[in-house]
Structures are given as structure tokens and as C-alpha cells.
Specification:
The protein has 657 residues and is an alpha/beta fold. Helix content is 49%, strand content 10%. The C terminus is likely disordered.
Length: 657
């Protein structure tokens, strides 16, 4: 019998086999042992009161089954999904709240270890918020920006979240027609929990509309706020070189890993690990210095801005410790496996929790405080250095690592298509219209041990770019591509279709653009809005040849993301089984009704080949609907010519400009 391959990453597979030999339990072992509940997995279980849990199953469950209270299957499935959306929105938006309050503290001089790095981005955001910035002190503008976005969390008396108006006018009109423009982030989350309480909202369509409104509060509220403020404080990303996979760990240096999602401490650590006093202290313990690496979305944050290397995504966190080379891992919030503490005990690794919101039994807690950020960071770095001499013999140093190009923010993508003064999305729109680029896919979401981890990302990434589809990636989707060697320009020459290859060569980009962490899915929203504003394609996000795919999703945050893209007009495809599969009515609403109302849909499909086919079909139908040239592999229209900057300068020179 052929042995199961747990991960598509050879280095991960080697560490998984090492763990098996040493009787170390990992998420891959637990996924094999712990079968999903077949009733809960498809959304047919209601446990929202103590009369249950009620299992709505049977041959005719959709029509006949009722819970003790009388709730039917569509109600139960819709309520379960709405609760997932509310939880995912809470996670992203609580992150954003922390960033907003940090910006306010910086403006008020209370967080002296941080500063406003990107003034231009500050002014750009101030413009969105209709805040005057010309001739005003930078801190005054920052204070007004922070105060204004903080209103979006707790607004009580009507109104709409501030960034809703950044959507194309037609998209916003659709939201208003169906009553799903968020009023405030916290209000939508609270109302979602209220509606799903015993005996409140029982109409599946009505519940799902509230789900979309809550999800939009995440995408156009929390995620967008977090992305913008992180750019303001730490700099808007531009392309940077980094490395990915376990080979980033160094045998002769202290290896300190930041894991989680909040970038505040990670940014401070970038500075602290290179302080002369810290390097000197490391040498007293026998190390050459301190090597900072990342895991999961915190890794994406510091990779995008500083080129800090990443060890990978969600399923790599236990395996990183099994290398035996991590001296200390800091964790904050979201996607942290508590199992890392038990694995760390088998090696020498220290696990340190840093958020007041998240503690793990057995881990050491050092509370991060933005008001004394460097002091806390130095304490943690010194702890890592002190642990360096305690490295044990067991463990395996994996030398595999791949070059990565990251840092493709909205602003840089705009700049690279025309420069500082002529930046636009016209070249990309032209390339799509001419058929050189067939369409765009956002490849995002978690990696999951219930499938061949990162394998679905790898398969879809290669097949999509072969079909001339430009990929924008975020979160663990970016990590999966990075640890496979897919985030480098050479990929365009090796694997991309001829049209996409031509575009990538002309602009000088990889065919897969790393946009950042999972909150940075908001960059995809603003890019899509800019493409709509540029003209030539759809005048709203809906109808564009674009699809969102999360092939290995596992988090409630992913469900919230999928829903805010569907509400914005993007067809979305998630891998794996559907959490609403039990209800044909809920499935119909999410696919057919949402497409009719919002031009977006939400599908679940476990077969990667069918995911690919469905995505390409959506793209081709969108092209047909926009009356664009029919896509044919290797055949491009002649009416549009994509030129690189040298060609443009030559034309301007001949014209005497």
C-alpha cells in the first residue's frame, strides 16, 4: 500500500516523517485520527440552546426535519454560517482596532517607539475620510484619521462605515438596495449573534443578508483599516527579496520566530535584533547574532516590508520546532496551535505568548505593551539568546529554502504600470481586454492538514498561470507559494502562458503577486475598485474576469473573507466540503441568488480539477459578458499593445515630449 503523503512540500514531509519516528504527535496525525462530525460538517447540527444539540438529518431532512424549537434545516445551516462570519469578522476587526488605537497613541506621543513612516499614505487615507491635511502637522492629521476610523467600530446612530464609499458607485448602490452596507463593525457582529440566538431570526435568506453585511464590515472595515494603518505606521510595501522554508534557520545564530497576526511587536523586533548591544550579547553565548524569522501572517507583514524570511504557513508551525533550531517562538493571536507548547518541551524551544487576549497553558507570558515596545522586545530577544546554549542534539536542519519576491501593494502595482506621476491600472486592463491576461484570481486562505497540505495551492497556482491567469496571493496562500519557489519572476518564464509571460516580462513582475497577510485581502478590493474606475472593463467589481479561491481553508476568518468578496461581486470557490451542504436552499441562495443580486457567488468544491474548471468558466463568462475578445491560448488582439517603460519613453522621445 502506498504511503500517504501529508504535505506537498518535501521539506515538510521530511519533518513529518521525523516526527513519526520520534513518536511526536502533529496536526497531521490528529487530522487522521479525528474524523469530522458528519452532521456538524455539513451544517445540520444546531447547538444554540440547551434543548439540543439538535441533529437535522434523514432522507428528507430539508423538508421534514425540525429542531425541538421547530427550526428547519435552512434556518440552522444559515445560522451556523452567520456565526462563523461573525467570529471571523471579530478576529480581523479586533486586530484593526488595536492598530487604530496605536496610531492614535503615536499621534498623541504615547507610543514613542513607533512613528508615522509613510506620510503619503496617511494623506491618501485622510483624503478617503475627507480630512483636511494640506499644511497641517502630521500628528494632527494622524489623530483625526485614527479618531475617524475608530468611529467605525462603535457607531450607534445609523450611518455607514467610512470606507464603503471607496467601492465603485454601482457596487455601493447594490449594497444599499439590499440593505447590506455595514453601519459599524461591532454592531453588525452583535446583531449577528442576537439574530442567531434561540427564537429570533428564522428566515435563511434574511440571515444570510446579515452575514453579507457583517462580512462587508470585515473587508471594507476591519481589514481595510488594518492594512491602511499598518502601511502608515510601518511603510507601504514595495518589492523586496526574501527567502522561504525551513532553511531560513541558522545553526550558528539565535533563531527567533514571530508567529501570529499582529505586526506591532514584530516590527519592533526587526530593529532590536540588530542593535549592537544585542548582537554583542548573543556572541557571549556562542552565537554570531540573532536571526529573525516569521511564521504565518506575522511573517507576511515583516517579509513585505523588510525582507524577513518566512518558515511558512499554518501547518508549518509544529514542524518548524521539530527542526530543533528555533530558540524562541513568540505568538500573539489567531491560528496558533496550542500543541506547539507540548512539542517545544521535547526540544529546547521556548514559546512566549504576548497578547492579553491569548494565553496557552505551559507557555511563558510576556505582555506586549506598545507604550514600552522596545523594552519588551529586548526582554524577549535576551530570553531567546539565553536559550541558545540549550539546543539539543535531536532535530533536523532542513536546508531547503527558496527566493521570494514580495511587497506588491495596491500603490506599487499602480506605480509599476506608469511611474510616480502616471501610475494607473490601464496597462493591466488593456492586457485583459486584449486577451494576454485571461483574468485574475485571488489565491488565498489557510493550508490544511486534512488534505495534502499546500498541495492544492501548488496545483492551482501552476495551472492558473499556465492558462494566462494572473494570481494575487495573501496569507498562507502566499506562504504555500513561497515555500514552493513560486514567488519569483523566473516562474513566468518557466510556467506562465505566453500572454501572461509577455505581460510579466514587460512590467518586470512575477505571475503570482504576494500582497501580504490575510487582512491584506483588502488590497484586492481596492485594486479591483481601481480597475473598475480605470474603465474598459466592468464599471463595478461584479462582472470582472476575476475569481477568489481558498482551496485549503479552515478558519472562520476565511468564511468572512469569502463572503465579503461574494458581496462585492467576486465569484468565490473554497475547497473541501461545504459547511452548508445539508441545505439545498442555503446552497442555492449562496450561489444563484447572490450571483443575481451582487454578481458574486460562494461555492464549495473538494476536487481541485473542478475548482480550476469552475474558475476558468467564471472568467470566460465574464469576458463574454463584457464583450471582450474571446480568450485563445497564444492568440492576442492587435488593437492593444502592452509596452514596457523603455518603449514608452522611446515613443515620447520621437514625439518630442
Amino acid at each position: 500500500m502506498e504511503k500517504k503523503v501529508h504535505s506537498a512540500n518535501p521539506a515538510s514531509e521530511k519533518l513529518i516523517l521525523l516526527a513519526e519516528d520520534q513518536k511526536i504527535d502533529t496536526c497531521f496525525d490528529r487530522a487522521a485520527k479525528m474524523k469530522p462530525c458528519p452532521i456538524g460538517e455539513i451544517g445540520a447540527c444546531c447547538k444554540n440552546c440547551h434543548m439540543g444539540p439538535c441533529r437535522l438529518v434523514g432522507k428528507n431532512a430539508e423538508e421534514d426535519a425540525r429542531g425541538v424549537c421547530g427550526a428547519q434545516l435552512p434556518t440552522v445551516a444559515a445560522r451556523n454560517l452567520l456565526r462563523m462570519i461573525a467570529a471571523g469578522t471579530s478576529a480581523h476587526s479586533d486586530h484593526a482596532r488595536g492598530m487604530a488605537y496605536t496610531l492614535l497613541d503615536v499621534a498623541n506621543g504615547k507610543a514613542k517607539d513607533f512613528k508615522i513612516t509613510d506620510v503619503r499614505k496617511l494623506y491618501r487615507v485622510a483624503g478617503y475620510l475627507e480630512i483636511e491635511f494640506e499644511g497641517r502637522p502630521i500628528n494632527d492629521v494622524a489623530r483625526d484619521v485614527a479618531t475617524k476610523v475608530i468611529e467605525d467600530f462603535g457607531r450607534q446612530m445609523g450611518g455607514e462605515i467610512n470606507f464603503a464609499k471607496r467601492a465603485p458607485k454601482k457596487t455601493l448602490e447594490r449594497w444599499r438596495k439590499w440593505g447590506i452596507v455595514p453601519r459599524s463593525i461591532d454592531r453588525e457582529v452583535v446583531e449577528s449573534m442576537h439574530r442567531t440566538n434561540i427564537g429570533v431570526d428564522h428566515d435563511a435568506d434574511h440571515l444570510l443578508l446579515q452575514g453579507l453585511r457583517t462580512a462587508l464590515a470585515d473587508g471594507w472595515g476591519g481589514c481595510m483599516i488594518s492594512t491602511d494603518i499598518t502601511d502608515i505606521l510601518f511603510g507601504t510595501p514595495t518589492p523586496v527579496r526574501a527567502e522561504a522554508s525551513y532553511g531560513i534557520f541558522k545553526e550558528d545564530e539565535v533563531n527567533l520566530v514571530v508567529h501570529g497576526h499582529e505586526p506591532l511587536m514584530a516590527e519592533i523586533l526587526v530593529d532590536v535584533v540588530n542593535e549592537p548591544e544585542i548582537v554583542a550579547y548573543a556572541k557571549t553565548k556562542g552565537a554570531k547574532g540573532v536571526n529573525l524569522g516569521g511564521m504565518c501572517c506575522t511573517a507576511n507583514e515583516v517579509l513585505m516590508r523588510h525582507g524577513i524570511p518566512t518558515a511558512g504557513g499554518f501547518t508549518n508551525q509544529e514542524l518548524g520546532i521539530i527542526t530543533g533550531l528555533i530558540d524562541l517562538m513568540t505568538v500573539d493571536v489567531q491560528c496558533i496551535m496550542p500543541a506547539i507548547v507540548e512539542i517545544a518541551k521535547k526540544f529546547h524551544t521556548k514559546v512566549v505568548t504576548t497578547s492579553e487576549k491569548a494565553k496557552i497553558p505551559g507557555a511563558q507570558h510576556i505582555q506586549f505593551d506598545e507604550h514600552r515596545a522596545k523594552e519588551v522586545a529586548r526582554e524577549i530577544v535576551r530570553m531567546a539568546i539565553d536559550n541558545f546554549p540549550n539546543r539539543k542534539a535531536q532535530g533536523s536542519h532542513i536546508s531547503d529554502k527558496f527566493p521570494v519576491i514580495g511587497g506588491f501593494s495596491h500603490e506599487y502595482i499602480e506605480y509599476m504600470q506608469g511611474g510616480t506621476w502616471r501610475g494607473s491600472f490601464r496597462p493591466l486592463n488593456d492586457a485583459i481586454m486584449a486577451g494576454r491576461v485571461r483574468g485574475v484570481v485571488g489565491l488565498a486562505g489557510c493550508d490544511n492538514p486534512r488534505v495534502q497540505s499546500t498541495g492544492l495551492h501548488k496545483y492551482l497556482a501552476i495551472e492558473l498561470i499556465k492558462n494566462d491567469v494572473l494570481i494575487v496571493s495573501t496569507g498562507c496562500g502566499s506562504a504555500a507559494c513561497g515555500t514552493s519557489g513560486y514567488l519569483q519572476p523566473e516562474m513566468a518564464l518557466e510556467h506562465a502562458g505566453p500572454g501572461l509571460r509577455e505581460v510579466c516580462e514587460a512590467i518586470g513582475i512575477p505571475p503570482i503577486l504576494h500582497l501580504g497577510s490575510c487582512v491584506d485581502n483588502s488590497r484586492i478590493l481596492t485594486i479591483a475598485s481601481a480597475m473598475a474606475a480605470e474603465g474598459g472593463l466592468s464599471d463595478e467589481i461584479g462582472g470582472m474576469p476575476a475569481v477568489g479561491i481558498a482551496p485549503e481553508w479552515m478558519s472562520e476568518k476565511a468564511i468572512a473573507i469569502g463572503c465579503y468578496f461574494a458581496a462585492s461581486g467576486v465569484p468565490v470557490i473554497f475547497g473541501g466540503n461545504s459547511p452548508v451542504e445539508a441545505s439545498k436552499e442555503v446552497t442555492r441562495i449562496m450561489t444563484e441568488v447572490w450571483m443575481e443580486r451582487f454578481k458574486g457567488a460562494f461555492h464549495f468544491e473538494p476536487d481541485p480539477e473542478k475548482i480550476l474548471a469552475l474558475a476558468l468558466d467564471y472568467i470566460d463568462k465574464a469576458r463574454e459578458g463584457l464583450k471582450l475578445k474571446k480568450y485563445e491560448y497564444g492568440k492576442f488582439g492587435t488593437e492593444k499593445v502592452l509596452m514596457d517603460m523603455a518603449a514608452r519613453r522611446e515613443i515620447r522621445g520621437h514625439a518630442g515630449l
